[in-house]
Amino acid sequence: MADRRWRVALAVLALAAFSASVLTSLWLFPLYSVNRDDSVYVAMARLLEHGHVTLPAAEHEFFRPWASAVRGDRVVLKYTPPWPAVLAAADLVTGTPRIGLGLTAAATVVVMALFAGAVLRDHTAGIVAGALLALSPVFVFQSATYLPYVFQLFLELSFATLLLAGLRRRSSTRLVAAGALLGVAAFARPFDAALFAIPFVVFVVLSVRGRRSAEDDDDRWTWMGVIARLSVGVLPVLFVSLAYNASVMGGPLQLPYTATGAQDGFGFGRRGVFPQFTIPFGRRDGVAGMAANLRWVPSWTFGGIVLVVLAVLGLRWTTGRARWAVAGLALTVPLGYLPFWGPYAMSHLWAGVQSLGPYYHLPVLVPLATFGAAALCGLWRRPSAWARPMTAVVVMSLIIVTAVALPDKVAANSSIRDDYRAVQRFVDGQHLRDAVLLLPGRGDLGFLSSTPFLENDPSLRQPVLYGEDRGADNFELLDRYPGRSLYRLSEDLTPGETTGGRLSMDLLRVDAGPEVRLKLRLTNPTDRPVAVAYVTDGRQVWSRILDEASTHARAYDVVWTIAAPDAAQPPPEEAVRLPAGPTAGVLAVGVELRGPGEAAGSPDRRWEQRLAYRLVDGVARVELLEPGQGWMRDASGAWVQMNGTDNPVHIG
Questions:
Q1: Same domain? 518 vs 460
Q2: Are 174 and 166 in contact (CB under 8 A)?
Q3: 168 and 235 both lie in a single domain
């Protein structure tokens, strides 16, 4: 391919990838994706725009981003600055971080074309490889989110491209640059960088023997010399990353990724982002996660199984030792991720691989695209009358297979998009000003959040602050922001769902005094005959039987008097005198319905309202934060939110 035509082809490829990334982001991910990590990278980008990498815990503990934790007096995000810095730069220069997505996608397909062209020694095949990557649904979808995997692939491909060019041209400058890019990749995602680099380091060791060539008698070009040049590039970035670790974590070898706990890492045992939300993860689970992700790889590549077959043929038709380094990625990446719980979780516990593709295994597309391009170009060039018609049939097969697999992937993400938009419209419709809005699934539960797009500026200077509902600690927000109204957003979800529930919003108020009377209307929504009213603070239960022959829809008016421990007046018979020990907590007031002859604690159905309380003026007064939040315990024993008229427990 002539140089001019090749450059035009690269430009077209870059423009196509840029457009697909930005347009898909605007269309399918306008409010982030189902992976709530999107919001963390954007939060980090905005933090960098303000010149900071952490947040003061005293001010931000209620408002901290998901996947962050308090370390000392600072809120530390578990992800590092390289990718957020790209988003921040794009936002500062263009006014939107989405341009950073498009530019990264464009740069990645261009580097893919250069890399494949170098491996195959064929510029045309390189362009085809870039196109195969750009047209793969997993690449398009990932490039349209704020997740870091495409950027990571760009860094890794750039490292490999410069490494091959440096070896071919005996260029120390290229090798040092390759090392620097590998260092940035390691700063961003250390394990990913290692898995990508391993096959190429092995290639260097096996290919560069240390013997002088006929045309170059410089004996410094041994494999150790090449590694030394790479190290010159890696080490300065490594020192920066160690300094960053020391700054935010207190030690150079403490990775920010462990800020939320050591249980979020490689190895078997109980695994999860936070210690209180972990799953058992064993060797069989690791194999199951790897197998499931690999099964999904063809579905998320351009051409599916057809491309896999082409890649196998292309590997056989390709010469040169570098091909084995490329092929090695198909081994190191899946095997390296086998002891990590993420691929298992995204394929078995939530619909990550179905909706966003096997993004941990994104580098596997490199050998598929490279050798698939080799096969396509080799087939086209065969000296046979049937070669070009056959190539056209193969290309049509690639298109058809991709088109058949695509609608389900779009539908999975468009349903999430529509659920997010419904929440946004609901919140916008409340016209809140000078408010703090407590949101479901925030803080440590951010992986379940239906509102990742409702974010706080690092300055906290905005009309509405979005916070975590923390029970009794919510009183701190009232004390800290006396000029703001406190609201709570609730979402009634069916078990197993994280979006799409019925929404409600309450303005919270404080009812205070030595005694606070709660008037309840309790309705029996079942045919169970034993109805019991109860109040519990989580340690002690106050209860009384309302009826032992109750029927469906029968209603009861109940009054509970919540009394402070040192309330001066003797409490009435129906009073709940709070214990003097804890000065704050959550009260649940509700109804328990049992079958005939069932004792308390037997399988039952419960509906309740939960209200935060605290004791003030010593322990002479009690404050209740009303209205309560509705919950229901179903026959399986699971608690789910249930607000509005459907909840048979009403206060007031």
A1: no
A2: yes
A3: yes
What distance in Å separates the CA atoms of residue 457 and residue 569, rounded to the nearest whole number? 48
214: confidence class by pLDDT, cuts 50, 70, 90: very low
Q: Residue 211 — pLDDT band, cuts 50, 70, 90?
A: very low
- Residue 119 lies inside a defined structural domain of this protein: no
pLDDT by residue (tens digit) across 490-526?
Answer: 998 877 788 888 999 999 999 999 999 999 999 999 9
Residues 116, 367 contacting (CB under 8 angstroms): no
Do 531 and 452 share a structural domain?
no
| Nearest CA-CA partner of 137 in 365, 335, 468 | 365
Residue 189 within any structural domain of the chain: yes
Which of helix, strand or coil describes residue 191?
helix
579 upstream amide cis, omega within 30 of 0:
no
In whole angstroms, how far apart are CA 644 and each of 236, 490, 506? 59, 10, 10
Whole-angstrom distance, CA of residue 245 vs CA of residue 273:
19
- Considering only CA atoms, which of 482, 66, 452, 133 is closest in space to residue 303? 133
Q: How far is CA 417 from CA 24, 67, 414, 450, in A?
A: 12, 21, 5, 10
Tens digit of each residue's pLDDT (9 = 90 or more) over 439-466: 999 999 999 999 999 999 999 999 999 9
Asked if 442 and 452 count as a contact pair (C-beta separation under 8 A), the reply is no
Question: CB of 138 within 8 A of CB of 357?
Answer: yes
Examine the fold and report which residue of 229, 259, 289 is the final residue of a domain before the chain moves on.
Answer: 259
Q: What percent of the chain has pLDDT over 90?
A: 85
CA angle centred on 110, ends 106 and 116, rounded to 5°: 145
Question: What pTM does this model have?
Answer: 0.94
560: domain range?
Answer: 510-651
Task: Concatenate the DSSP letters of all residues of 469-523 into one string.
Answer: --GGGHHHHHHH-TTSEEEEEEEE--TT-SS-PEEEEEE-EEEEESEEEEEEEEE
Question: pLDDT-derived band of residue 633, with 50, 70 and 90 as boundaries?
Answer: confident
Total structural domains within the chain: 3
